[in-house]
TrEMBL record:
It comes from Achromobacter veterisilvae. This is Peptidase M14 carboxypeptidase A domain-containing protein. It comes from the Bacteria.
């Protein structure tokens, strides 16, 4: 069932065509929009041939693009940035929008200072040869409203034009095709009659083809992508709509709307949006497959067949649940002495280093001959299948549409039967009697934004830029002392046993502090930690690892799953020795 099939003119083409007319010879045109540098420069060149002076800039991360495209960074000694403050934006909003400028300008002293509310960055550049340059960098934004009425200050297209006599003709926000596409998707979904009962559909497919920005930065794993940003904004905006439609509070993870799939692709022409409701596709059986290399050398996320092959190799007492789409959730239990632990990965299926880390740790424990654990290496196979589908087009994106299940919920927050994937946890708990759940997670390896909904990812503001590998430990009342000993022991062992981990964390934390204007979590033995008392977890102790792995490959992926493995081994040994 098709809900929308619509095209939108390319804003850059429309502006170029409009000002090619002879009447505009001698005019000056400034525009901000969501296009890459190459396309913007080509449009400037066309207008220059017609006698029009044009400068087209990026409306997305304008200060970063200013330094990339307009600043001579050679010999730059110091930079002072006075960033905008606005009553409808968090104080850190515009310092985060400048990320990762501090790292990009390595060698120069960068100072961030609060400025005025007029949506300009005031920039002072000082060079080693004594030159000083003062510039104002416009950050075009407009005020809108979130689904619940909260004000949102969001980047927008903007156009300024002076005619040949220098008389201003326009200086106003413009709805670019990037914004029009987003608005058409949200409005279409809001306007549809969804009924009163979850789930509202099997799959909500949203295919978008449009121009945009997508490039890597020479800073760690950073990329700048309007395609990724639109994916994230569409996905979470629609979750927010269905939360409201269902009467749930904003951010509720138990919501089961169905599977929302934004598929955003580059197209250098008019933008097109196709929204349709689709049934779940028939599944082909997955035969277990052997790995071509040892797990320790795996440099990219495993396939479902490879995961099945690794799980089958353990033997033990196998158990399984079945996902919403009919995929097996594979588990195994290895009996042994001492207290058991429950090890899991890919609760959020776009967090893939934990899958390999869990399998490597289980191999090591089994090889010692005294293993006692229940293992589900990939808890969310439907999400994992979507992740692998989407990363064919955008291998480095975070792809949060694959984070949750095919029901659209976070499986750990599933509220009622049928429990589908969560039934695997129930079986693991029952068969093992474990009191410690080691739950391996990840988070974005580069900046996470929602530029059309206030820029920062709502409810996930703490996760917007990487801050190294860290640990979250939740414990039931009365388990505080054991939790303290566990987190102290695990962090000390990781710092000692994983070469480069403390240094990796220090680098990422330094950049996080520079742009987020906060310290984040407490740091223990060089590893950020958060320990909370909560009865939400089913087991008395839940150790949650967080490595910035969305989505990394090669040496970084090996490092990620090594850290995950060592976390499991450290926690398992400490738990056993505690006599719990």
């Amino acid at each position: 069932m098709v809900l929308l099939d619509r095209t939108f003119d390319r804003t850059l083409d429309a502006w170029t065509h409009a000002y090619l007319a002879p009447a505009w010879r001698g005019a000056v045109v400034e525009g901000w929009l969501f296009e890459g540098a190459e396309a913007r420069r080509a449009a400037q060149a066309r207008l220059a041939q017609a006698g029009v002076t044009a400068r087209f800039r990026s409306a997305y991360k304008p200060l970063l693009h200013y330094f990339l495209e307009e600043v001579d960074r050679e010999g730059l000694a110091s930079v002072v940035v006075r960033y905008p403050l606005h009553e409808h934006a968090q104080a850190k909003r515009f310092t985060l929008e400048a990320y990762p400028l501090v790292a990009l300008l390595e060698g120069a002293r960068v100072t961030m200072q609060p400025g005025a509310s007029d949506l300009h960055y005031d920039v002072s550049l000082t060079y080693a040869d004594g030159r000083k340059i003062e510039e104002r960098v416009y950050a075009p934004n407009q005020l809108g409203r979130a689904q619940d009425g909260t004000p949102e200050l969001s980047p927008t297209g903007w156009l300024r034009v002076r005619d040949a006599e220098g008389v201003p003709q326009i200086d106003a926000a413009q709805a670019t095709e990037f914004q029009q596409v987003f608005r058409s998707i949200v409005d279409t979904v809001r306007g549809h009659a969804w009924g009163a009962h979850e789930p509202y559909f099997d799959r909500l497919e949203i295919r978008v083809d449009l121009p945009g920005i997508d490039f890597a930065l020479p800073v760690d794993e950073e990329i700048v992508s309007t395609f990724e940003a639109l994916h994230e904004d569409v996905y979470f905006s629609l979750l927010e709509h269905f939360q409201q439609h269902s009467g749930r509070p904003s951010g509720d993870r138990g919501l089961q709307p169905g599977q929302i799939i934004p598929d955003i692709r580059r197209h250098d022409g008019a933008a097109r949006v196709l929204i349709s409701l689709e049934p779940f596709a028939a599944l082909a059986p997955v035969a277990p497959a052997a790995l071509a290399t040892p797990l320790a050398q795996v440099r990219e996320p495993l396939s479902a067949a490879q995961i099945a092959g690794c799980m089958a190799a353990f033997g033990g007492d196998t158990f399984q649940a079945v996902s919403r789409q009919g995929r097996p959730v594979l588990g195994t239990y290895l009996r042994g002495p001492g207290p058991a632990v429950f090890i899991s990965g890919a609760q959020h299926a776009n967090e893939t280093s934990g899958v390999v880390g869990a399998l490597r740790a289980a191999q090591a424990l089994a090889g010692r001959g005294d293993a006692h654990f229940a293992l589900i290496a990939a808890e969310n196979p439907d999400g994992y299948a979507l992740f692998n589908r989407l990363r064919e087009h955008h291998p480095r994106h975070m792809l949060h549409a694959s984070r949750y299940s095919a029901l659209g919920d976070d499986i750990a927050y599933r509220e009622r039967a049928p429990f589908f994937e969560r039934e695997g946890r129930h079986q693991a708990h029952a068969i093992s009697g474990a009191q410690l759940h080691i739950n391996l997670h990840g988070y974005p390896a580069h900046e996470w934004t929602r530029p059309l909904s206030g820029y920062l990812p709502r409810h996930f503001e703490l996760w917007t830029i990487p801050k190294g590998f860290f640990l979250v430990l939740r414990h039931h009342p009365g388990w505080g002392e054991r939790a303290r000993r566990l987190i102290e022991g695990v962090t000390a062992r990781l710092a000692r046993n994983v070469p480069g981990l403390v240094e990796f964390n220090a680098r990422q934390l330094e950049l996080f502090h520079a742009h987020a204007l906060e310290t984040g979590f407490d740091v223990l033995n060089g590893i950020p930690v958060q320990v909370t008392e909560s009865d939400r977890e089913e087991l008395p102790l839940a150790l949650i690892s967080e490595f910035p792995d969305e989505t990394v490959y090669g040496d970084r992926f090996v490092f990620a799953h090594t850290v995950q493995m060592e976390t499991v081994l450290a926690a398992t040994d400490l738990h056993r020795n505690s006599g719990a």
